[in-house]
What does this fold into?
Amino acid sequence: EAGVTQFPSHSVIEKGQTVTLRCDPISGHDNLYWYRRVMGKEIKFLLHFVKESKQDESGMPNNRFLAERTGGTYSTLKVQPAELEDSGVYFCASSQDWSTDTQYFGPGTRLTVL
Amino acid sequence: QKEVEQNSGPLSVPEGAIASLNCTYSDRGSQSFFWYRQYSGKSPELIMFIYSNGDKEDGRFTAQLNKASQYVSLLIRDSQPSDSATYLCAVNRDAGNMLTFGGGTRLMVKP
It folds into this structure.
């Protein structure tokens, strides 16, 4: 069974540009989460989808971040316009359903904003 | 005060020894507790989860939970150089909800 995949693995952009990160969860997993780790800090929650609906977006830092999960399969996270402080590693995780706590993480996308 | 605290390390142990990793959390409503292992540049990989007070063993790994003291630990017996990684403690309040992570402890197992 394929794990959680993320694309791209690395992205280097300039301040003010737009970047879109993609996450493909494990097939059949209804829950999809985005997390972020900025330099020297702990991994922080951004938001949680249940199928195509946003269940919790309390961790989204500001309105420059837009997450979507059309059709309840893969998800995208767009940062527009990117700022220097957005640099970090963006992780996606998925879990099967509400009764299952186990979240499986993808390899992350390392975003560098210059 | 951070919600989940871990000593950043590095924690250095000789091969074959027991490595003890500790984590404290501030939210008394936390219900589920997880230990993830992360190799440099890789994804966090779940090692153990524990819900109830006491010990839970899985192979060389034992997770210990004390909700009264808001403390969870991970013991690694017969440590191997391949165990060298960053160990992340994570908690959540309810099944399916977001995980709150500690900063991780870097473990180094020396041959």
